[in-house]
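for ur thesis appendix - 4Fe-4S dicluster domain-containing protein. copy paste whatever u need, i formatted it the way the template wanted (i think)
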Amino acid sequence: MMGWRDLPIGGVPPLTSLEYKTGDWKVFMPKIDTSKCTKCGLCWMYCPDSAIIWDGEGYPKPNYEYCKGCGICANECPVKAIEMVR
Ligand code: SF4
Ligand code: SF4
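the 3d part is after this line
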């Protein structure tokens, strides 16, 4: 491990964000009910971590390796198709 004086500005080496599985931080996770989803894309637009991806049928799908469980997607979904579960 590097000493703190050796760390680059910003704290982590550049171009390594994919290696940090920030999804480990979450306590709650979004579950999407595709029977309610209208594929509007608002959850994708509002996710601060770009953790919403799309499945083969055009429905949003959380990428749980990077989703931090903030719940913004559930808050913004206009048809309440996203539930945050422990
Ligand atoms: S809970 Fe937060 S981080 Fe996870 S998909 Fe929703 S908006 Fe993105
Ligand atoms: S915001 Fe809700 S309705 Fe819109 S794509 Fe996301 S889950 Fe589906």
